[in-house]
Amino acid sequence: MIVELGHFCLILSLAVALVQSTLPLYGAQTRNPGLMALAAPAAIAQLLLIGFAFAALTYAFVVSDFSLKLVVENSHTLKPMLYKVSGVWGNHEGSLLLWSLILAIFGASAALFGQNLPPQLKARVLAVQGMIGVAFLLFMLLTSNPFLRLEVPPLNGQDLNPLLQDPGLAFHPPFLYLGYVGLSMSFSFAIAALIEGRVDAAWGRWVRPWTLVSWVFLTIGIALGSWWAYYELGWGGFWFWDPVENASFMPWLIAAALLHSAIVVEKRESLKAWTILLAILAFGFSLVGTFIVRSGVITSVHAFANDPERGMFILLILGVFMGGALTLFAARASAMEAKGVFAMVSRESALVANNLLLAVAAFVIFVGTIWPLVAELLLDRKLSVGEPFFNAAFSPFMTALAILLPIGSILPWKRAQLGRTLRLVVPALLLSAALGALVFAMQTGRSALGPVGVALGVWVVIGALYDLAQRTGRGGLADRLGRLARLPRADWGKATAHTGLGITIFAVCAMLSWKVEDIRVLQVGESYALGPYEVALQAVDRVEGPNYLSTMATMRVTRDGAEVAMLYPEKRVYPVAQMPTTEAAIDYGLLRDIYLVIGDPQDNGGWAVRSYIEPFANWLWGGAIIMALGGLLSLTDRRYRVAAGARRVPQGVPAE
Amino acid sequence: MTRALILSLLLAVAAPLAAPVFAVQPGEMLSDPALEARARALSKGLRCPVCQNENIDDSDAPIARDLRVLLRERLTAGDSDAEAVAYIVDRYGEFVLLNPPAQGSTLLLWLAGPAMLLAGGGIAYASLRARSRAPEPGQPLTAAEQARLAELTKPDA
Q1: Contacts of B65 in chain A (CB under 8 A)
Q2: Is the dihedral of CA B97, B98, B102, B104 positive or negative?
Q3: Contact between A235 and B58 using a beta-carbon 8 Å cutoff
Q4: ipTM score of the complex?
């Protein structure tokens, strides 16, 4: 009964979305306040309806209602409750419902928090948001209905994929979706602005928070996914340039570009057309990502044939929205006249360079991701594009970005003198170069990647700190500290996010270049040296979990005779899903992780054991968290809290 | 999550066949450390033909194991790195190369990024130049005004 109600609510929400996407738009065109006012209640109604549908599906998973096809395919009575709930979105149909729910949440929050928006802009934004809702609800109801019943319900389910039964992965998809779908808000604002033919500083101030929110969620989502891959897949890799990873990385890069160019719109009323284009592209890449993930067309052309309906539908959505948006853009972009004049050397130009590098980096990933498909369809060549290509083709752009960042971020607006700014950063440059050289001298016979990572990371972090220090102006220490505390949170956010980026760059380089690996056969009772540590395999036992069987090793790690950690790597088999998983045991540390994996029993009675020392692994996730924190700090800036709707920049906030 | 879904599909196919093997096994490794290091480096650039996007060094698939063993046989037989890779490419196609060589139509792939950087940089430069030459709001000073200004700001004698 509840399930049927949920199904009904889903259909009803489609009807509401149809109303939301048409009448307010017409109302805005004819200046009919009644029709425009329809948008906000419609958006809230949509949230309530989809929210109920989602709750109904969650209920079905929680009580293990095996008359529902989706529950049978993705759940089991023995599964822990956390994974029964996360099973709701651990599959195609449920994840689409989550996607639609998040879309409705964003639409409703624009309706609730957007009271200061001009009514026409608000009606148009919500109408565009409604159109996206229509597309995805239709997609779900026509091709991937989560509420389908089975005629003969089985006694128990087929269990959720064991790899998904993991806390890191339980929350990875919701965060990623919050990011993907959040970009739909920037898209809706862009389309509404194109229809209105006007972009001003206030528009920039409305768009930036939504972009920031999406970017923060994408950052957390990507970091969670990367962390999961690190501890779960069993060889300590954290990024594989896999098409589905690229699908989340491209919107992240474009969103990063967008939230920088929106600053220029907000502060200087320039780069308007480019910002609109970025907003369209950011959501476009979200849709491309959905297409790549849901159709399987990139990973294997044969998967496409298995489910042509779904892939074609997403392609249709992508075509309609991107085709429509870009046509509108071509027709109206010339109306976006730039107001602010700036010189070739200025903060504005530095942000253009930032945008260019980020956009090109995203483009390189895009081309690399779809190249196998292009080559097969057009050139009749079956080839692969993998990690070596992306490492070589992507890194130069990021390196250039990191080199430019500390200089660009302290250039004055409008007109700057390059020589003066460069003189300011000479100490930071010398320090980072010296540290890089020192590291190069200390590590003999290894790749230059590590020292380069140290130099780049230090350069970016010092640059961010210097940026903050420079914002405090001149005068005595007490004065400067006082001003530091009173700096707008946007400044703190900027410095924090840039620091996070520097740490991430350093950690990536450190993990790639200083990893220690050991693979061997070990008898129970034997030990071996791993770097400065001594690792002993003390026992291997069979252990039974709630819904799996485990082979668990007991391993003792010592250093100079003192115990560092007892680690218990496992190899699990989930009998219902007929799937094995490795559970690496990790001793997390500030400077290094010790990462142990137990493999197969060998013919001579020993066990295959792989072990790694992963240097600075925690710095990678830490850097990502600091970046996200920077975004959050910036989001709480006074101008968004107090003056979110004001047309003019409030006087109390410095121009920076 | 999606990566896991795809992995799971692969594993689901492989799982009923046999207990899984995980990536490089100690038994496959060569006793000569220099040769083994070469094999490891090469296998990271070779794609497992039945896998999603994994190299043969990381892959659990039986064919990846076969390829690892084959690669080591070639190296032990005295092949150079290029010869050993060419031997495998001859038999499994260029599909197994994770790093497509920059030649022929693949050159387009390699040049796409730099080309876009040049094009985008060119467009940005041209428009910035046009913009920075746009007249500043307000009128510039006339020659007479300049002279008067200079007189006013001249330090008193």
Answers
A1: none
A2: positive
A3: yes
A4: 0.81
